[in-house]
Amino acid sequence: MATNFVKYSQLINNSTKYAQRMKRLSNRIFSEVAIPTNSRSMKVVKIFSARPLHSNEEIIHYYPRHVETHALMLKLREYGLFRDEHQDFKEEMKRLRELRGKVKVWKRKLNQEQKES
């Protein structure tokens, strides 16, 4: 004697109207595509069934940690293990400016010195 599950699976495989309706109902219950569709429509179904992008860790944390990397490079530069040519150039220009006597004086700094004296 066949079990009820076997009878149900045989019923689903039949091509009667009742079997087709039961198959569609089963597909709806288990969140599958109810009516067979073409491959382009299945692509849309696949996209919408995927995990949302705003909750995907790979996309959220895609960019590197610029602030921490910059702080690390500054520390390595202090120790002499990293050479930042742009910063070296800026410091050299500032040193040459001081030698020529063209040091920039900020207004805020001038105001503080006047208040102190």
Give the helix/strand layout.
Layout (H helix, E strand, L loop, with lengths): L3 H10 L3 H13 L9 H11 L7 H4 L5 H14 L5 H16 L6 H10 L1
Question: How would you describe this structure to a colleague?
Answer:
The structure is a single chain. Helix content is 67%, strand content 0%. With 117 residues, the protein is mainly alpha-helical. The longest helix has 16 residues. This is Small ribosomal subunit protein mS33.
Q: Which regions are unreliable across 5 or more consecutive residues at pLDDT < 50?
A: none
- Considering DSSP H and I runs of 4 or more, what fraction of the residues is helical? 55-70%
Strand content: under 5%
Number of DSSP strands?
Answer: 0
Number of helices: 7
What structural class do helix, strand and pairing data support? mainly alpha
Main beta sheet: none
Distance between the termini: 108 Å
The best one-word shape is rod-shaped
Keywords: Mitochondrion, Ribonucleoprotein, Ribosomal protein
Subcellular location: Mitochondrion
Family: Belongs to the mitochondrion-specific ribosomal protein mS33 family.
Organism: Vanessa tameamea
